[in-house]
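User: structure tokens for this one?
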Amino acid sequence: MRDILAEIVAQKKQIVAGAKEKAPLTQLRQGLQPAAHRMREVFRKGAWGLIAECKLQSPAKGRLTRSHSVLELAHIYEDNGAALLSVHTDPHFLGSNEDFKAVRAAVQLPLLRKDFVIDEYQIYEARALGADALLLIARILSPAQLQEYLELTESLGMDALVEVHDDRDLEATQATRARFLGINNRNLTDFTTDIQNTLDLLPRCDKSRVLISESGVMCDADVKKLQAAGLDGILVGEGLVRASDVAAQVRAFARS
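Assistant:
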């Protein structure tokens, strides 16, 4: 069976190595200004938050939309009630650093850099791009790396959404002081989705953390089910970009 996550991580090592050659870490860190923990502020103010993802492609399903560019999606999301935007910078999702910079220049909402972090370099890179937050995937990091990367992220004024998929990931994450816990409904091998994964893991989650359900949210019924279960928010890409009316879907998903 194809292991998509393993493929992405293997290519990511090459991408990071190339980025270090073009802009060494010492250069990247020069003049870097800290962020202001804007994701933290968003969830401190509201009872429900939609993290709307600018996602053009899935490595499992191929192209998801040809109707909108990343920048057009960002504007639609901002105009219709999203709390934060998630912008991919991984090529498997047709993401790029250039897309991220374009969105950062065009919108006021906090931005989460969606990528596969395997090296501290990417954390500094995220801040250099203007990120307010980033994704850390528990499955691809050792417990020591997870703790180290969390501390580095917070020292740069960013927030980390730590993604878990099963009990092993959850245990590793809850051994840290991670403020944001994202339960991924996507099977990390074949990328199929089922929001039941959130509902199954939720009883073992520390409710003092901000709990986000990620992926597989496709309709209002899914949103209502997750809200009723006590989630603080959702991260949605495909469920928005494939909608017949993206703006209306954003408004529906953003409602508490």
